[in-house]
Amino acid sequence: MDILKLRGISLFIVAFCSLVLALVLWQRAEKDKAKIWLGFSAFFTALYAFFCGGTYFFWNADSMASVYWYRTTWLGVFLLPSFIIFTYYFVQNLNYLKIKAFLLYLGAVIISYFALTTDFFVKFVYLKYPNISTLVGKLDFLGRLYIFICVALVLINLFKEYFKSSGFKKLQLQYFILGVAIFFITGIITTAIVPLIIGESPYYDITAYASFVWIGLTATAILKYHFLNIKIIATQFLVFIIWVVALINFITEESFRGHLLTGGSLIFMVIAGILLIKSVIKEVEQREKLEILTKDLQAANEKLIKLDKLKSEFLSFAAHQVKSPMSVVKGYATLILDGTLGLASKKIKDVAQKIKSAANRMIGLVNNLLDSRRIEEGRMEYNFEETNIVDIVKNLVEELRPLADEKKLELSFTTKEKDLRAIIDIQKFSQVIQNLIDNAIKYTSQGWVKVSVTKEDGDILIVVSDSGSGISKDLMLKIFVQFERGTFTDKTMSGTGLGLYIAKQIVLAHKGAIWAESEGDEKGSKFFVKIPAPYK
């Protein structure tokens, strides 16, 4: 079969596929105007490809029909305003859209009218094998100018959206702009630059193939991939161009050996192209899933941050609201105990002592909540000064001895040093050691609690050990975590799981270290605090 007939048939196939694509887009558009206008672009691409195919298939050098077939190819300009309106809906730039659409289509109507009814655009059509070419008329440049304007409008829309966008959408627009640029450059070279340079237009049908490829792949991305995934479009476009070149080489080859070589190359390129497209689609789908998952995780993380902030604010508010009345309760209990309110029986004093102890525990809990809040916000203030660590620890042991005596525990303090000096915040560091000794007494039902202060490698080491309930391996991993507590059989043991968390933060602020050791449940435990000495 003659190559002109083959080219005509291939263009008819493109026209048929473009028409089917237009019908599919309109069917699935519903109220999506972007799909509707892309459907119009596909419809006018079908007309353009059909008339280009007719020019080749029905070529007759002795008939004016060939001239009219060629002139009707100018109806392809109608796909440009349709595609421009599609981009306006894509970027959601709908200002004065009706006026813009009217002007764009008015230009297309004027060009088509003069192209069909006069020789201002097409003077003469002739065969320049294997192409059909034409001598351009004196108004042909206006049609080329119209193409340039349409190209500019599309790229302006996309670039404006590109500079406003970020993240994945910006990446999509990069590929989108690249693809549009490749498509329109192809059209400009074949239908504008070449005719201006040589005075004829022998490659106009290439734009029909390019139009179908670009609009078809854009529609595929919209219908199948939800996003306009331009990486897929660009890949498919380039693969299609390779197939077209390989097919042309196969058709134009004259020798049998050449047919074998080009045919084998064509088959290889088709298979390799399909595999390439599938791999790109798989990669894009995975990336989109990852993008969705990342956004979900970011949204969840933001919600968690807000909830954590609300939690902290609530704890701070509640702590302040509780602390004041507890101080009043403690004050009245103290007045009863010291006799300020008059003589009280032993029974009343015992009750007052219990009230005072409960108030002290509550105030301690509130202080822990407030300290935790300050640590989270980085507002914990320290007043560092040099002092004797031995005296501080010894005094704390004596202050807590009544608690040990009450439980009939042996509480001891040992040290070989008289003066181990360090730069600390006395109040906050005392809070750490007091918490460790208090915990040791609290979680030891019988036996002993031992406290020691030693000098180790120039640092000061404080050890609080006991024969109490011990620490399991699971709990050991999280005892210094905020709001983590062990599970104890004695339900009277109160606490929030903040004491050791705060203790660790205070020790770290002193550039020290705190850790615990235990052989397991009911085997006792040891807590270590190491802080640097200023003079080693």
Question: How would you portray this structure in words?
Answer:
This protein has helices at 3-29, 33-57, 65-72, 79-90, 97-117, 140-164, 167-198, 204-225, 230-252, 256-337, 346-377, 389-406, 426-442, 473-476, 499-509, and strands spanning 122-128, 131-136, 385-388, 410-415, 421-424, 448-456, 459-466, 513-517, 525-532. Mean pLDDT is 80; it is low at 487-493. The protein is elongated and about 130 Å long. Strands 4-6-7-9-8 form a five-stranded mixed beta sheet. It is 67% helix and 11% strand. With 536 residues, the chain is α+β, with helices and mostly antiparallel strands. It contains 15 helices and nine strands.
The biggest beta sheet reads: 5 strands, mixed
How do the helices and strands follow one another from N- to C-terminus? Answer: HHHHHEEHHHHHHEHEEHEEHHEE
What is the number of strand segments? 9
Query: Percent range for helical residues?
Result: 55-70%
Helix-strand layout with pairing:
Elements: H1 3-29, H2 33-57, H3 65-72, H4 79-90, H5 97-117, E1 122-128, E2 131-136, H6 140-164, H7 167-198, H8 204-225, H9 230-252, H10 256-337, H11 346-377, E3 385-388, H12 389-406, E4 410-415, E5 421-424, H13 426-442, E6 448-456, E7 459-466, H14 473-476, H15 499-509, E8 513-517, E9 525-532
Parallel strand pairs: 4-6
Antiparallel strand pairs: 1-2, 3-5, 6-7, 7-9, 8-9
